[in-house]
Amino acid sequence: MKSQSESKLRCKMEIAKTPKPPYYAVIFTSLLENQNDGSYSQMAERMEELARKEDGFLGMESARNEVGITVSYWRDLASIKKWKDNIEHQEAQNLGRNKWYKNYKVRIAKVERDYGY
Amino acid sequence: MKSQSESKLRCKMEIAKTPKPPYYAVIFTSLLENQNDGSYSQMAERMEELARKEDGFLGMESARNEVGITVSYWRDLASIKKWKDNIEHQEAQNLGRNKWYKNYKVRIAKVERDYGY
């Protein structure tokens, strides 16, 4: 059964309003372990809340079915590094590797062009 | 109610097995119109099937709640351009703009670094 916070997490309705490129994207893809006590989605919400406060944060998009994809957008590599080194985020990363993720992949990419409406 | 093909589309269980960077990512984010007769998910499956046959295609990850995120990975900008110009894909893009998408955004990004397991 989905927890309430998990449902909330799964219902984000925004496409990130990013500035004109270039800027950076962190593409985070994960498969969760089958056993999940709901602590994952609480952490994910908390991490989003924290990320939004970081200098250089430009936006975030997130969806999960079996695979979860979270793309966060950043002004530059320095702001990505600073967020990666955030103490609370470090703890979440450790928990992720040790407890939540069956597999995960982080890709750091420079957005060169965008279009759409 | 979800159609069967839509459910299938929403249950992809793979993290793309991409080569060592650099390579390219196309981050496609969309919000669908509320009225959806199921033709969207059929088209999405067909597009994935076609993309996988393209020269330079490296992998694809997809998830949808309210926001849908599809990230496809490509060898270089030339292979992305070729896929964008594929006739059947062009038709799908037109239908998307005219019928399915409330909003969408395409971001073309060069993956510089990745990690994970």
Explain this structure.
The structure is a homodimer of 117-residue chains. By secondary structure, chain A is α+β, with helices and mostly antiparallel strands. The first copy, chain A, has a single domain (25-111), classed as Alpha-Beta Plaits (2-Layer Sandwich), CATH 3.30.70. Chain A contains four helices and four strands; from the N terminus they run αβαββααβ. In chain A, strands 2-3-1-4 form a four-stranded antiparallel β-sheet. In chain A, a hairpin with a 2-residue loop joins β2 (57-64) and β3. In chain A, α2 (39-53) packs antiparallel against α4. The first copy, chain A, is globular. The A-B interface holds A 10-16, 18, 21, 25, 27, 29-31, 61-69, 71, 103-117 and B 10-16, 18, 21, 25, 27, 29-31, 61-69, 71, 103-117. β4 (101-116) of chain A pairs antiparallel with β4 (101-116) of chain B.
Features:
homodimer; 117 residues; alpha+beta; Alpha-Beta Plaits; 4-stranded antiparallel β-sheet; 4 helices
In CATH terms, what is the fold-level topology of chain A? Alpha-Beta Plaits
- Counting DSSP E segments of at least 2 residues, the number of strands of chain A comes to 4
Q: What's the helix count of chain A?
A: 4
Helix content of chain A: 25-40%
Termini gap of chain A: 35 Å
Q: Order of strands across the widest beta sheet of chain A?
A: 2-3-1-4
CATH architecture descriptor text of chain A: 2-Layer Sandwich
Largest sheet of chain A: 4 strands, antiparallel
Q: What's the order of the H and E elements of chain A? A: HEHEEHHE
> What is the global morphology of chain A?
globular
The fraction of residues in strands of chain A falls at 35-45%
CATH class of chain A: Alpha Beta
**Oligomeric state of shown chains:** homodimer
Mean pLDDT of chain A: 89
* CA gyration radius of chain A, whole angstroms: 14 Å
Spans of chain A of at least 5 consecutive residues whose pLDDT stays below 50 are 1-11
Give the largest chain-chain interface (CB within 8 Å): A-B, 39 and 39 residues
- Counted up, domains of chain A total 1
